[in-house]
Amino acid sequence: MSDYVSTFSYQTAICHAPQFAPRAYKHFTVSPVTGAIGADVEGIDLTTASDEAIAELEQALTDHLALMIRDQTLEPEQQIAFARRLGNPFPWPYAKQMDGYPEITELIQEPRDKYAFGGTWHSDSCNFESPPKFTMLYCVECPSVGGDTGFSNQYLAWEALDADLKAELDGVRAVHSAELGYGTGSQDPEVLANATTTVQYSADQFNEALHPVARTHPVTGRKALYVNDSFTASFEGKTQAESLPLLKKLWAHSIIPEFTGRLRWKKGSLAIWDNRCCMHYAHSDYPGHRREMRRIVIAGERPE
Ligand SMILES: [Fe+2]
């Protein structure tokens, strides 16, 4: 398998990368934040939105991959009710869930914390056989600046790869490992000791899954690159050492600036993104400040 990814082909492909189609939305306004990914949404109340408005919101998510929906006031019950309109929320097994609300994970950073939860590029829970299709975060508290969430468009990442490399990788599967993401050695013990929200992982929760390197989105039919340096251990049938040279090139390729955008938080904003076609990254640039998010993940299908 070739381990060479041409930087020249990036430039050529990026110049011709398809952007989102401009679309008029009826129930809210959508303001894209970059040409590649992400949009702010204003003018919708998630507690009272009609079925037609929710369907249109899903269309906006399909168009922009990650949305920041502004000006919400959501009690846990209301966030769960909204999540249920998009699919089936499920308890995430690697952290203590919110008291009384098994669907919600509280992601809290206190001013003293040295650990940014989610501070790597990844697609959520890709170590599951059927990873969640959507993740949503509701902002209870955040610093006035800092703590953005970054996103990277993995349709564009796949489409921009050299044609020969795409041909080689199409149909190849990769191992995604919880041990790699959460196990011994994945975090600095001293940093973890100063963390409010941590992953509760033990070897008996070990699981891993085999997924296509290029997965096909069930709604759009487009292929998206689906490897990341948090969980992807190796290509199927190859050792980690054999796999790493090409994996490292794919990881670097998957987050080049032209594929990325970042969404800025405010109290009362709710972000939702599609794990099947984007990766995300929690920016840790707010030492000394408090940040509190409520997260729900929505069940997805087995990647194909
Ligand atoms: Fe995440």
Overview of the structural elements:
The structure is a single chain. By secondary structure, this protein is an alpha+beta fold. The chain has one domain: Double-stranded beta-helix (4-Layer Sandwich). Helices cover about 25% and strands about 25% of the residues. The strands form four sheets. Strands 1-2-3-14-6-16-5-4 form an eight-stranded mixed β-sheet, with helices on one face. The chain has a three-stranded antiparallel β-sheet with strand order 13-7-15. A three-stranded antiparallel β-sheet has the order 9-8-12. A hairpin with a 6-residue loop joins strand 10 and strand 11. The radius of gyration is 19 Å and the shape is globular. The chain starts with 6 loop residues before the first helix and ends in a 6-residue tail after the last strand. The structure holds fe (ii) ion.
Helix count from the secondary structure assignment: 8
Sketch the topology as an H/E string, one letter per element: HEEHEHEEEEHHEHHEEEEHEEEE
The CATH class: Alpha Beta
Round the Cα radius of gyration to an integer and report it: 19 Å
* Shape-level CATH architecture: 4-Layer Sandwich
Range of helix content: 10-25%
CATH topology: Double-stranded beta-helix
Largest sheet: 8 strands, mixed
Count of all domains: 1
Strand order of the largest sheet: 1-2-3-14-6-16-5-4
Number of strands: 16
Bound molecules: fe (ii) ion
Strand content: 25-35%
The computed structural class is alpha+beta
Mean pLDDT: 90
Q: List low-pLDDT spans.
A: none
Distance between the termini: 21 Å
Q: Rough shape? A: globular
CATH homologous superfamily caption: Clavaminate synthase-like
